[in-house]
Design goal:
With about 280 residues, this protein is an alpha+beta fold. The chain is about 55% helix and about 15% strand. It binds adenosine-5'-triphosphate (ATP) and magnesium ion (MG). The site of magnesium ion has 5 residues, from helix 5.
Length: about 280
């Protein structure tokens, strides 16, 4: 951490807090960098077919204009009919609806991905505010979809929960780390379940996979910074350490349940209201 003269921290505690903030930010940037390629791919696909649909629509319009133009000049209704038969009017009409519908869906998908990225990267946000956890999870799913879809069928089972006081971009980051870990734990193609619920004055969300599972002797190391079983260059071992620091900051906790060869479930508990945390500006 670089400390210049004019922002020298006044205490060790403050220096640590500052280092933690920078670490959070840089891990998030690294994560966003990693998924940017995936997101680009995800957007590229609908852009591709919307573009080709618009080209086809242009051709269809040319055909349809041939009929409307002929209305002014044609000598007889039969002449119009023969133009209409020539362009295979019924097919064009049916396909036009399909092309428009598919294109609108594609554009909608692109809009969702972009909105999710915006939601996801509220980097400046540091204050605890009431937020909809389900929306956060949906946002995160949209962002990591590309990492998940080739590895697992993702199921959501959302309970009836109130909004919770949290720093939503950071909670999204926890969800992202758990989801990406779950996908990495699955060797070929598996299943990931995301559930939410409430118990007393706490809300929980969990991510369960049917992947490799974790050896009981490793469970105690999971949240240590730089603990990773992934090959060099693949994992930094910071995902869970940062997730824990975020959850601690929210006065919550993370539970792990894992059976080797069967799968793993991470459950995050968060208080609905933050007691005694003065909202930071
Ligand atoms: N769902 C899971 N199933 C099996 N093992 C897991 C799971 N989640 C975490 N682990 C184990 O915990 C280790 C630490 O996870 P963590 O997210 O902190 O780091 P990482 O995924 O290795 O690297 P990154 O910094 O890229 O997240 C992983 O390397 C893996 O061994
Ligand atoms: Mg990880």
């Amino acid at each position: 951490m670089e400390i210049s003269e004019n922002n020298r921290p006044t205490s060790l505690e403050e220096a640590l807090a500052q280092a933690n903030r920078q670490l959070l930010q840089s891990e998030k940037l690294a994560a966003i960098g990693q998924i940017a390629a995936g997101v680009a791919h995800e957007i590229n696909n609908p852009v591709g077919y919307v573009q080709s649909n618009i080209q086809t629509l242009g051709n269809y319009l040319q055909d349809l204009f041939r009929i409307t133009d002929a209305v002014a000049s044609a000598g007889s209704v039969d002449e119009l009919k023969s133009i209409r038969d020539n362009i295979d009017y019924d097919y064009v009409r049916g396909d036009l609806d399909d092309l428009l519908k598919e294109s609108l869906e594609g554009l909608d998908r692109i809009k969702k991905i972009i909105a999710s990225l915006k939601d996801f990267s509220h980097a400046e946000e540091e204050a605890f505010k009431p937020a909809d956890l389900h929306r956060g999870i949906e946002t995160t799913l949209n962002v990591v979809n590309n990492e998940l879809k080739y590895k697992a069928e993702v199921h959501t089972d959302f309970g009836d929960i109130p909004s919770i006081e949290c720093i939503v971009s950071q909670v999204n980051q926890v969800a992202m780390n758990l989801l990406v870990n779950a996908a990495h734990a699955i060797e070929q193609f598996g299943r990931i379940d995301i559930r939410t619920g409430q118990s007393g004055d706490e809300v929980w969300f969990e991510v369960e996979d049917n992947g490799a599972g974790i050896d009981p002797s490793n469970l105690t190391h999971l949240f240590e910074p730089f603990y990773t079983t992934k090959p060099v260059g693949k994992g930094t071992g910071l995902g869970l350490a940062l997730s824990k620091s975020i959850v601690d900051k929210h006065s919550g906790r993370i539970e792990v349940d894992s059976v080797i060869g069967r799968g793993t479930r991470f459950r995050v508990w968060l208080p609905i209201q933050q007691a005694g945390v003065a909202p930071t500006a």
